[in-house]
Design goal:
Helix content: 40-55%
Largest sheet: 4 strands, parallel
CATH topology of the domain at 20-123: Rossmann fold
Structural class: alpha/beta
CATH superfamily of the domain at 20-123: Lumazine/riboflavin synthase
CATH architecture of the domain at 20-123: 3-Layer(aba) Sandwich
Radius of gyration: 15 Å
Order of helices and strands: EHEHEHEHEEH
Mean pLDDT: 95
Oligomer: single chain
Bound molecules: 5-nitro-6-ribityl-amino-2,4(1H,3H)-pyrimidinedione
Low-confidence stretches: none
Strand content: 15-25%
């Protein structure tokens, strides 16, 4: 038996947790994520967006929303740029590890759409310029995972 998610219109509500830090980039990820959800049949009234100050603040919000039982998936969006901070490693590490921990604890798919780049240009490239839109990709992954969870036994 093969279990696999597909891209048919998923059931349930979707939460997006998006950092305000580097909003110039993150707002583009958010636009991409909402666009992808809409185009996979998720209406706006099934999308809740939560803005947090920075990527460091994403994990506890993911944990709370994920455990609430209200959401089929939680999508995390942020942007940490090494060139702009001496504590890049701490912020990027805390966000990555915290989101991963929340993901396994809360029982619903948690999708990692936090950019970690060396430069602003690399971030822009991944937010709708040369390298696609990672927010859009994160939302498509959420659709696949929600549909997979609906099929999995238990
Ligand atoms: N938060 C980010 O999301 N990206 C960054 O690049 C960043 N920098 O450069 O420091 C950043 N810092 C803020 C951090 O996420 C927290 O909001 C802050 O430390 C308060 O806890």
């Amino acid at each position: 038996m093969l279990y696999e998610g597909d891209f048919s219109p998923p059931a349930g509500r979707f939460a997006i947790v998006a950092a305000r830090f580097n909003a110039f980039v993150v707002d583009q990820l958010l636009t991409g994520a909402v666009d992808a959800l809409r185009r996979h049949g998720v209406s706006d009234d099934r999308i809740d967006t939560v803005r947090v100050p920075g990527s460091f603040e994403i994990p506890p919000v993911v944990q709370k929303l994920g455990k609430s039982g209200k959401y089929a998936a939680v999508i995390c969006l942020g942007c940490v740029i090494r060139g702009e901070t001496g504590h890049y490693d701490h912020v990027a590490g805390a966000a990555t590890n915290g989101i991963a921990a929340a993901s396994v604890q809360c029982g619903v798919p948690v999708i990692f759409g936090v950019l970690t780049t060396e430069t602003l240009e690399q971030a822009i490239d991944r937010a709708g310029a040369k390298a696609g839109n990672k927010g859009f990709e994160a939302a498509v992954t959420a659709v696949e995972m929600v549909n997979l969870f609906a099929k999995l036994p238990g």
